[in-house]
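Fold sample X.
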Amino acid sequence: MQQFVKFSQVNSYVLQCDICKYFPSIDRLTLKALIRRKIKCPDTLELIDRIIDSSPPQESKDDRSRGLPIGNLTSQFFANVYLSGLDRFIKEQLHVKNYLRYVDDFALFHHDRHFLAEARVAIEAYLESIYLTIHPVKSQLFETKQGANFVGFRVLGNRLRVRGENLRRGKRRLKHMQKLCRLGKMERERLNLSLQSWFAHLAHAHTWYLRQNILASLQEKNLSPNGEGLRVQEKRAKGKGLKG
């Protein structure tokens, strides 16, 4: 996220792209071919093939077998392997220096709007060669000064905020866990671990005061965390200056 902020500050335009139905659209034969460029062990390849083919095919626009199950750890890894060629294409052939990708969400930054418009056309052609398309609505080219959403955060100048929808979802989940704790259906340690995970995500943005308010609300309900994890995280985040 800090790189996204940095690139936004030194470039006038950003091309943000999202791949349409990414996981269901991954072509299995293409994925296997990419993996075979790096892995040569027959036993390992056989195991990988079994993992890839273990779920029913999904997007069936033609006679090709497509799709990986969302949520599997192997799917996350294979999904990055599948787009590794896109990373090289953008950096080495399009010569884009300021580029970021998180799974199927990626952004290109440049001072020339026309350059990014042409880059989009080239990217669409490349993705077509591996049986993918970019989302026609979520993929947009605009001025960086307008602000942008990326992986759950809102970038405004040098400020990072949590998107309202993500924050509301997190608060609803926390409220549900609090209820389970009061009913004795969840241990406080599990609540603590879940909070550590959520706070680690929130700490990427200027959310120090937000996190303090959440901790205060837990103390009022006698559900304050009893571990050291959150206190360590808060000290680190405070040291980074991510207040707000």
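Fold sample Y, listed below.
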Amino acid sequence: MSSPDESAAAPPPPPDPAGAARAGRGVHHDDDPVDGAVVVLPTHEDELARAAAPVAGGTAGRRVRTSRRPLRAALAGASALGLVVLAAAVLLREHCRETLWASPGLYVHACYSDVPTLYADGHLDQVVPYLERVESRDFLDLPFGLGWLLWGLGRLVGADGATGPRDVFDASVVLGAVALVVAVAAVVHLSGRRPYDAVVLAGSPVVLFCALVGVQLVPAALAVAGLWASARGRAVVAGLLLGLAALVAPLAGLCAGAALLLVRWRRRRDDAAARGARPEPSAAAGPGDDLDGEEASRPPVLDPELRTAATAALVWFLGGLPVLLDNFGVWLDAVTARLVAGPGYGSAWMLSGLLGAPLAQGTTTAASLALRVAGVAAVVLLVLRAPRPPRVPVVALLLMVTALVTAPALPPQAAVLVLPLAVLALPHWRLLLVWGAVEAAAATGTWLYLYSSSVPDRGLAPWAYAVLVLLRLGALLVLAGRAADVSLRPERDVVRSPRSEPSLGVDDPALPLARRAVADPDPDPDPDPDPDPDPDERLDPTPPAHAPPAHAAGAAPARTVR
């Protein structure tokens, strides 16, 4: 047994990294907004954020005191930044607002927007879309939600006459600002320990150069909000949001919903294998059958992901039901217009045309569908073969990139659908900002190429536009490659918590009840616990007879030495 002098002379225990993190960065326990996980400060882990930190006051120091409500702080900062960037995007389009998008000025000033063009070309100030048409003009073939949205905005602001398209554009900007804040809020709550990654979404060049080309901010926000609702266990609300997203931009709702189903399928299969039982042929399961034994003993209900998918499908069907009842041909054209099409701007299929050998519409359609099916099959195989179930945003990003790079057309505004998924799946600031810069360059190149079509010997040459298209496709494939890499090598995924259960992938913040599994296992609020008690103390819990009382002031802890 040791003497009191020996105990006092014993070397102090080694420092605890977790304790240092609690003292330096702040820790949040089970009743805090991030469920006990230490909030990741960007300047501590991201090289680009650290390099840019001097502009905003420097890197967060060891004694920095983080906000007691980090989610609110991240939401407020990112939302403010996003609104500033969106306001700058409006200023870049002021020339077009003044000239009412007159050609070729809208290409020279890179301020083109689909909103006034579609509103004017569809005569939405005179007819109800899909149900009526102006004589000698075809019915609208846009996605149902997009047509209804533009028509509703026109009715809301009373858009009429020559300035009607501008009024609708202004209304779409206000709606886009609301959608951007919603998207930021969803990303903040779905990022787990990394709420400040929403800053990349808000300050991305995609918002500045592509967000106001169309209304894609709306379906992008609806899709990521649907994932947020699903993570909170609101299956029906999630389905409603994903269905609305699919009405405006089918890929937005379809990719998010398919990702939920694929990850759920993989997790149920792993759970059945872990229990030594075959998967049940029925889709009935408890809402937390693979997470909590008590919940699994409840009466079976329809699987929440299936409820989400069924609700989304019903919402999408109801959105087009008036058109289906009125004219099946118009309904079918609106559904298939983006699938059966010739080579469009920005797509891989346009490259041959830029080089002097254009593809026929039938060839483009058949090849696009074949490659898309093959790409989706590859994503499904990846989800099933990965060492751990991939995170939902990672799978959604893979599906989105697969659909876009194989699509007959890849317009600039499609990048807005990728942005929130990329931030959630790959929160590496340098990678995302480089990709956003490529998207901005490709968007500007598209307008300059169209300018060359209007004014010969001006604008961007076809070969230069082909280079930009290749760069853009390459950047998207890099995102897909990184997403596949973190799926096959989960230890490289910076979002996953090392304390989570690896067998079921419950460390995905986008899954229902996932955060319960990554909460800090030590809810003791003491900021300086004993980090590493002496090994002999653990082996011999009986204190020595001469040990001073634990409450005695200044008493040295007694240690057992053999």
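Sample Y note: The longest helix spans residues 164-190.
Also: Residues 1-36, 281-297, 499-506, 514-562 have pLDDT under 50 and may be disordered.
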